[in-house]
Every structure is written in C-alpha cells, then in structure tokens.
Amino acid sequence: AQSVTQLDSQVPVFEEAPVELRCNYSSSVSVYLFWYVQYPNQGLQLLLKYLSGSTLVESINGFEAEFNKSQTSFHLRKPSVHISDTAEYFCAVDTGGFKTIFGAGTRLFVKA
Amino acid sequence: DTGVSQNPRHKITKRGQNVTFRCDPISEHNRLYWYRQTLGQGPEFLTYFQNEAQLEKSRLLSDRFSAERPKGSFSTLEIQRTEQGDSAMYLCASSISGTSADYEQYFGPGTRLTVT
Question: Which of A38, B33, B41, B43 could form a Cys-Cys staple with B93, CB 3.0–4.6 A?
C-alpha cells in the first residue's frame, strides 16, 4: 500500500526567506507525485506534478520540487517566499490506478 | 470552463437521516473522484469513476455510502443513516485522460456535512 508523510505540520517563515516543505512516500511500484495548494477559503489546486522525465519540476509561481527515487522524497522548495504563499500544501502520490493518496498537509505561514 | 461545482455547500442533518450531494465536473472531463477531508487531514480517497463506470472504491466507503455517475456527467454521493463520524468536508474532483493534463485533478469547493 502507498502512503505519504509530510514531516512538518506547520512551517512559519519570514517573507523573502527560503522554504522547504518535506514529503516522503512509500510505494513498491512506480509513482506519480503531486503538490496541491489550498489558499485560505479556496479549493485545492494543483501546484506541480512529476510523471516522468526530469526529476526537477517547477510551478509558475516559483516553487520547485525534486523527485528523489532513492530517498523516496518529493520535497517542495522556494528560494524566496511572499505573504501570498501563505496556504496549506498537500503532497500526493498516485500509482496510475487513479487512487490518489494525500499527505496530512503542511501549513505554510509567511510572516512580514 | 466553469470549474467543478458542488451542491449544497453546507448540509446540517440529524443522525440517522440520509443525505445526497451532487458534483458537476468540468464538462469534458471523463474522470471523477470523491474524497472526504476532516480537520487537520488531507483528502481521503473514497471512489473514482471513468465515464459512468465506478472503477475504484475505498474500503472507507461502507455500505451506507453509494455513488453514481449516470451517463458519465454529474455524480451523486449518498450517505444513508448518517452518523456523527460522517461529519467532514466531501470533495469532488475531475480530470481528463489522454492529454498533457493527464492526472491533473481539478477540485470543487466541497460540501461540508455536519451530523448532529
């Protein structure tokens, strides 16, 4: 069975500082990996995804995540955060059977 | 493209009553998913449809839960004999297969169920 662990439930950080949100997964088969974001009072939306190819994937708003197969990780990073990045971030894994497993979420709180 | 819509947005019901939720996916999307989310947790997979066929169903989905997607368009999720433990946000998502957007799920705003 697949599982996803988000190692930090909350991450407070000052504006313009770098941030890393950690995600580890377990699976005995190949996986597709995703980060979803939920801004306050909004629905979940896809931030970025890894299906195959380059292990480094980027979003349009400056986030990136790297698939590390040996460490079974898919950490999310941003070199300089903005107040508007305050949200809950969910890591998710799918083995192609369309049963997506989500982590418990990491609440990113960006302080001025 | 008006996004995924869910109705109602909020539902308060008494224990033992039946409730039904509706999800309207993005019109060209052939895949539809239902999730349940409780406070402090990520969405938990409940079931998945490809067109009108229900292809995956979680063990979380007891026999009190049933979902349908007639004609492969909108979907309904019914909970019979509700229990207080059913209180949660019920999320619907849709996606389209065979494109560059494969596996990208678009979520609706959810239906918040409170069982008193």
Answer: B33
